[in-house]
Amino acid sequence: MKLTILSTSDTHGYVFPTNYVKKGSHQGFGLARAATVIAREQATAQGPVVTIENGDFLEGSPLAYYVARVKPDRNPQPLMNIYNQINYDCGILGNHEFNYGQEYLQDAIRDAKRSILCANILDANGNPEYGQPYKVIEKNGIKIGVLGLTTQAVYKWEKATNISGLQFESAFIAAKKYVPIIKELADVVVVCYHGGFERDLVTGQPNDIHVGENEAYHILEAIPGIDALVTGHQHRQLATNVFDIPTTQPGFRGQAVGKITLDLDRDADGTVHVTHHHAELVSAADAPLDQKVLTAATDLNNEVGHWLDQPLGHIKGDMTFTDPFAARIHETPYIEFIQKVQMATMGADISATALFNDEARGFENPITMRNIMTNYVYPNGLSLLNITGADLKAALEVSARYFTVKDGEIAVNPAFVHPKRRQYNYDMYEGIDYRLNVAKPMGHRVESLMYHGEPVTPEQTLRIALNQYRAVGGGHYAMYGADKIIAESQGAMSEIIADYLQEHPTIDATTNDNFSVVNEPQD
Predict the structure, then answer these.
(1) What is the arrangement of strands in the sheet containing 427-430, beginning at the earlier edge strand?
(2) Contact call for residues 301 and 40 (beta carbons, < 8 A)
(3) For 361-416, what is each residue's pLDDT tens digit?
(4) What is the distance of C-alpha 317 from the center of its chain?
(5) Domain 311-518 in CATH 3.40.50.720
(6) Do residues 463 and 349 make contact, with C-beta atoms less than 8 angstroms apart?
(7) Taking the CA of residue 471 as centre, how many other CA atoms within 13 Å lie in the half-sphere pointing to its CB?
(8) Where are the domains of the chain?
(9) pTM of the full structure
(10) pLDDT of residue 337
(11) Homologous superfamily of 2-304 in CATH?
């Protein structure tokens, strides 16, 4: 008998095949495409099929944001109704499921048709808080045990009010506890982990910059009894065997569907063995859009389109750019505008922000919510922190790690590209003047750090505006933290920008060129 395990992961609410940058664009991803692939694979499979939604479904796209923050009732039901059109057996929680708070997440779980599994996010008493830790599904006489795990690093990124009362246990520790239990109850053990690999899959060398965020390699290396592993979180496209265990990771936004096939044989005593296995990704790039998903989503999508295209403000000058790498080396009017908004909103002396991905192109004229949502892609609000000059210099040194020198030219440090793209961890600063010299060793790259024309001193006190992910130390900024936060915004950054434009309907595209990134070797 064959058992097929299908999975999507990190769809982030991207139902339609668009990144929303250009109205009417059709690209090779989206839940509506992945749904067609899943339905086809379910219909043609030889033997039973288990289908998994592997997390990060509740946040990410303008459509998901519209449901959570713009619709009057702020109820996840319209989004969950779309996902419910797909015949998922189980669902895993991703780290972004907490971005809109626990009440919103609990409502989403209530509305989900799939069984939510989460073994390592615990309540104050150490019991699983969301759904069950595992489920045993019987199909065609085969008992399939499915364990749900989420990256423990949620607590490092999420603001405290969104995860109050929760404990985040290591996925490895939880798997070590539950895999033997499931093995006693089921014929096949499938581990579904919203997390990825912390080591190179060929060499076994560590390649992660955040200890504990990804534990899949350690799980497969040290815990016997796992027959298949479904992963996510890193947005990689993987289909391979690790320690002779098939594993998949299907990218993000519904680019592909993970598919693991297990050939099963039952002994005379009833014991089931996996005699052969195969892992692959089934691309959704050319799949037609699933009609059930379209029917459930069309009216909502029309609302979102109307909301995205309402003009909010006008620009004197040009606030667009074409080269995101160049925009991280030389200040653009777009970045300066974001910094001005952050400083004005929070009453800060200085500000830091990032160009979050390489799809960003700045604000077109007139500025619409589409521009805002496709440039500032995360729902974080702002925090105001009291920091010292020493903290500031240390943070700039962390940002400077983004760069390296390749063939004599400034380039992106590969650690920010693989195993996961992390452009969002390179910040640019406003309210100070500084230079990053990437010819120098890491930790010694910050030069000419000035505040109001005077050198910044280590003991100097400054008030800085940051997004809430960075404010609690997210992205390996250990010099920041919740203990330094003195104020927080009420709304998300997209709302803050829209509110600012209501008060300033015409803005000037300007830059003060307060920072530079250079490659100047010392004599």
Answers:
(1) 427-430, 350-354, 461-467, 382-388, 485-488
(2) no
(3) 999 999 999 999 889 888 788 999 999 999 999 999 999 999 999 999 999 999 99
(4) 33
(5) no
(6) yes
(7) 25
(8) 2-304, 311-518
(9) 0.87
(10) 97
(11) Metallo-dependent phosphatases (3.60.21.10)
